[in-house]
Amino acid sequence: MIRSLIASLQFLTRLPIPGQFEADELGRSINLFAVGGLVIGAAAGGVSYLLQRLGCPWTIRAVCITVFLAGVTGGMHLDGVADTFDGLMSGKRGEKLLEVMRDSRIGTMGAVALWAVLSLKAASIAAIPDPLTALLLACGAGRACLTGGLAFFPYAGGGLAAAFAPHAKKNWAGGVWLILLEVGLIFGSSSLAVFVALACAAGTAFCLDLRCQRLLGGITGDVLGASCETAEAVCLAVYALLS
């Protein structure tokens, strides 16, 4: 399990994590992506604490944390946001929709979606005096949506996610949400905020995956990235509203 966690962090982040993994071993790490997300959230919480100690204003701190979250993952999932929303707003279906999503250029709606996701994250973080719990939940929930997407929806494309699709387990995809709920109840000050934020994150990803399945016949790596980022942003926003 430790090796799977290391493999998940190696894939999910751009941190120089040593170790070499066989394809099957890397694929099985999909079931621990949510735990890897908790590690990313904890690191973001550390950045928040450091900036607070340095006397950094709330708004600047929130932007710095948002930039950190994008940088530590190499913007991998943000690329999916742009491609997915360019495709969804194109009015196309099937292979024609996939062609739009595979275009390396960012269209108008992709740029708007990126702006909306990043702005919502920064604004939400700025509204939370101590964002550690929210960051743990949001980063964990976003990665849990990667596992859930591959476990409950057919995979329709190639790319990096193809190596993980056969290994995503439904019991793990559901169980990790219980882990996130427990973490939130331990560290959070409002059980209502924790529960509703996680539920909204899961619901957002589910609706996005379901819509793409109907248009494409399944989900792709870009769709997974979009569901991860939108779920993360929604989780932060709901937690900020209710905490």
**What is the succession of H and E elements?**
HHHHHHHHHHH
Could you tell me the number of beta strands? 0
Q: For the residues shown, what is the average pLDDT? A: 93
> Shape from CA axes?
globular
**Helical residue percent band:** over 70%
Largest sheet: none
Give the low-confidence spans. none
What is the count of DSSP helices, taking H or I runs of 4+ residues?
Answer: 11
Kindly report how far apart the N and C termini lie.
33 Å
Structural class: mainly alpha
**Radius of gyration, rounded?**
17 Å
What count of structural domains? 1
What does this structure look like?
There is one protein chain. The chain has 243 residues and is mainly α. It has one domain. Helices cover 74% and strands 0% of the residues. It contains eleven helices and no strands.
